Every structure is written in structure tokens, then in C-alpha cells.
DNA sequence: AACGCGGGGCC
DNA sequence: GGCCCAGCGTT
């Protein structure tokens, strides 16, 4: 049985991650949502800020939407944080401000699926259930040499059955150990089999083809778009428009895609290509200086403090900032 | 079952 | 330049 070796390895080699310090459902939940499709190192600074700003379900339930999105700025998949607020409200209203304590009940909450429910239930409440994420899929597909396409539901189900049959206590450590092994040793490329505590029983190691697993369906090509953004500027302020609540970067702030009415001066920006996972934006940017300031113009410090601007717009924002500052200097010297 | 949804680090 | 990450909700 590999479990004993795995648990021993975990005790020795687990990273000291901040969200492992406390066995509290709230912080486990926050870390799990943040870690969805996101590397741990990328989400750590966000985690600390988030817990400080919203220390519990109640404070999160009362959060301002704009503040929430701002604190998430740059993490991506912004619906995660909106679902977190919905989840917090539901816990406050239905469960006296606590999480329900079983995987089954957790699964019903917004933003919590099979994996996250299993992670919270096992890590925070010691329920003996699985938490099958991408790491665990990879570890098991190699360990049992599963050559089916793991993006297929049927394959995930098959692997989940194997994981369920393997569950060992302490379950909190076991589930995290599987993930940690996937994150540190059984990594996607160039797996470090020499350092693997369960190498002896690993079928792919025996075959010598661990690096060819798991088998994943080809991704379809990205769609390409060529948007032009008009950055309306009045003196030192920039116009920002809240994007539609649906689609890409929903509800975040961005630049206009229409010309303003009376343009005093135009400056073209250096084009920039932003790659999303499923879309490619070849962006053109034109700074338009306007005389009349309507609503929704923000100073650079306001933008920095309050407004959530996705990464796609940061290069144009920086360029615009530079142009504004140069222009100020110019006008002073006159 | 397939698709939409971000961003970044690593090879 | 592609891959893939402590996935979930919608269609």
C-alpha cells in the first residue's frame, strides 16, 4: 500500500502554506476558491489581503461588490468572487453564519463543486471523502497507468472511484498529500520520479512513460478579436466604463470602444496583444483628449485605490499615464 | 458533454 | 508559442 509512504513523505515535505496553519472552514474555503485554476504562489498574496479585509462569512456577506472585485483584480475568473459573496449570504441566512459540515451539503452552495466541497469537508471537518483536482487526476492516471482521455467525464469518474477506494486517515493529510505530490513531484512535465515516495508501486514508472500521462484532449484554437479602445482623457483624468455583466471580463472596468464627441487631440498607443485562455485580443489604443468632462472620469490615484481594471488593460493604462504626465510637464513649461 | 471564463509562469 | 494550473456554472 502506497498510502503510508505518501503520508510519511507529506509530513516531511509539505510546503508551509499559510492556509494550512488553521483548520478553519472559512480560510480553507477562501484558499480553495482562489486556487481554482490558479497556481498557489499566484494566489498567496491575494489570500492574505482577502482574509484581512473579510475575516469571516458575515463580513463577506456584507461586502460591497466593487470592493470585492477590486480585491480580486488580476486573479481572473471573477465570477468566483461573486459566487463567494452569494455563498456567504446563503450561509448567514440558512446556517447561522456557518458552513454546512458535509460534502453533500457544501456541494449545493454557489461556487462549490465536487472538488471544493470534498476539500473543505475533509480538511476542515475530517469527513472521509475525496477531493479530486487536477493534481490527483495526474497522480492517479500515472499510478494506475490510465490512458483514457482525462477530460472525459467517464475517465474522471473512473479515477474518482479509485481515489475513493484509496482514502486513508487522517483524511485531511491524505487528500492534501495527494495534491502536494502532484504539485511538487508528479508534475505535468518532467515528473521527478526519482524523488517520488510511491515510485515502487507506480505503473507508469514501471512502463517508463509517466511523462506521457495524463492524456488530455487537444484544445481548440482561440478565437481572435481586434478591438480598438478609445481612452478618453480630460486633463489628468481617464474615462472608464463598466463592462457588461455578461461575457469576458464581465462587470469590470475598461476603456470605451467608441469615440467621444469633441476630440481635441488624438494619440495612438503602441498596440498590444492580450492572450486569454480562449480568446486573443489584438488591441489598438487611441488616447482622445476631450475638453468637457462628463461622468465617470477617474484620476490615476482613484483608479489605483478603487477601480478594478483587468490585466488586459494595464499596458494601455500605463502608456496613457505616461502621456498625461508628459503633457502636464509640457504645459507647465509654457 | 461541451463551452465560457483570466492570468501568468514554465518549458 | 503552447501548456496547464488545489474548477465551476451554464447550455
From TrEMBL:
Keyword Electron transport: no
Catalytic EC class: hydrolase
Keyword list, A-Z: 4Fe-4S, DNA damage, DNA repair, Glycosidase, Hydrolase, Iron, Iron-sulfur, Metal-binding
Needed cofactors: [4Fe-4S] cluster
Cofactor binding note from Swiss-Prot or TrEMBL: Binds 1 [4Fe-4S] cluster.
Xref: Pfam families: HHH, HhH-GPD, NUDIX_4
InterPro entries according to UniProt: A/G_AdeGlyc_MutY, DNA_glycosylase, Endonuclease-III-like_CS2, Endonuclease3_FeS-loop_motif, Endouclease-III_FeS-bd_BS, HhH-GPD_domain, HhH_base_excis_C, HhH_motif
Reaction(s) catalysed (UniProt annotation): Hydrolyzes free adenine bases from 7,8-dihydro-8-oxoguanine:adenine mismatched double-stranded DNA, leaving an apurinic site
Listed PROSITE patterns: ENDONUCLEASE_III_1 (PS00764), ENDONUCLEASE_III_2 (PS01155)
SUPFAM superfamilies according to UniProt: DNA-glycosylase, Nudix
HhH-GPD domain location: 34-184
EC id: 3.2.2.31
Keyword hit for Lipid metabolism: no
Family of this protein: Belongs to the Nth/MutY family.
Role played: Adenine glycosylase active on G-A mispairs.
NCBIfam families per record: mutY (TIGR01084)
Name of the protein described by the UniProt record: Adenine DNA glycosylase
